[in-house]
Amino acid sequence: MPQPKSTKEPNDLNQEHGTMTTPPHSPGRLPAFNIGLTHVTLPTSQVQVNRLTELINEVTLGTDVIVIVVSPATHLAETGVDPSRFIWPTWQGETIPEAHQKWKAIFATQDRTFRGIYYEGPTLEETQTFRVPATVLSDAMWKMTQNEPPCAVLCTGLTGDPSAAEITTALKEGRLQAVLVEALFA
Fold first, then answer.
1. How far is CA 145 from CA 19, 34, 65, 185, in A?
2. What whole-number distance in Å separates Cα of residue 128 and Cα of residue 19?
3. For strand 46-49 and strand 56-59, is the pairing parallel, antiparallel, or unpaired?
4. Residue 24: what pLDDT?
5. Distance CA 136, CA 110 (A)
6. Which of 31, 32, 162, 174 sees the fewest Cβ atoms within 10 Å?
7. Residue 3 confidence (pLDDT)
8. Cα end-to-end distance, the chain, whole Å
9. DSSP code string of 16-42
10. Which of 60, 9, 69 is CA-nearest to residue 39?
11. Residue 58: what pLDDT?
């Protein structure tokens, strides 16, 4: 399916390198989430301080970052996932989302792939992992994982399998919720 061309507005999601991946699921049963990858240029220079850990994330002007769009295939209540883990601040495209130290994005260096996301719970039993089939990143997207500090934007706010245009519109209209997460490498 052809990807629409992105506009040159700084807060539009850049779709040239976008890809959708579907988490593994049982035959005849919808996955709990659709997960899409795209990227955005964060248009301002800001420093984020996590209130829980005092860790500082500094992102500089014009940094391209991967955006992981998590959209429940159905209503979150039907997924068996704790919906409170997805209550994030509204993301205005002209700002850097607030840092969240419990969510992580997982990438594999050996084959330069995106592998999924996980929420680090207080115990191993409460830690949830959302694995996806190994999704090879383009050279441009892999370069984005090499930012200092390595990070990605994790966002939600749509359901189903949203198109690039729907994601961009939702961002412009302030309907996405997002956090800045650490990128880990396996």
1. 16, 21, 7, 9
2. 23
3. antiparallel
4. 53
5. 11
6. 174
7. 39
8. 30
9. EEEEEE-----TTS--SEEEEEEEEEE
10. 69
11. 56
**Ranges of residues in the chain whose predicted pLDDT is under 70:** 1-32, 42-62, 73-81
Q: What is the pLDDT of residue 158?
A: 83
SS3 180: strand
pLDDT at residue 65, as a whole number: 83
Are the C-beta atoms of residues 105 and 182 closer than 8 Å to each other?
A: yes
User: What confidence tens digit (pLDDT) does each residue in 76-127 have?
Assistant: 555 666 777 888 999 877 778 888 989 999 999 999 999 999 888 888 877 8
Q: Is residue 155 a contact partner of residue 91, using CB atoms and an 8 Å limit?
A: yes
Provide the Cα torsion 19, 76, 78, 38; round to 10°. Answer: 0
Structure tokens at 27: 């035959």
Q: Among all chains, which residue has been given the structure tokens 């330069």? A: 112
Q: What pLDDT, on the 0 to 100 scale, is given for residue 28? A: 56
Separation of alpha carbons 137 and 143, rounded Å: 9
Q: Among residues 37, 40, 36, 35, which one has the least CA distance to residue 13? A: 40
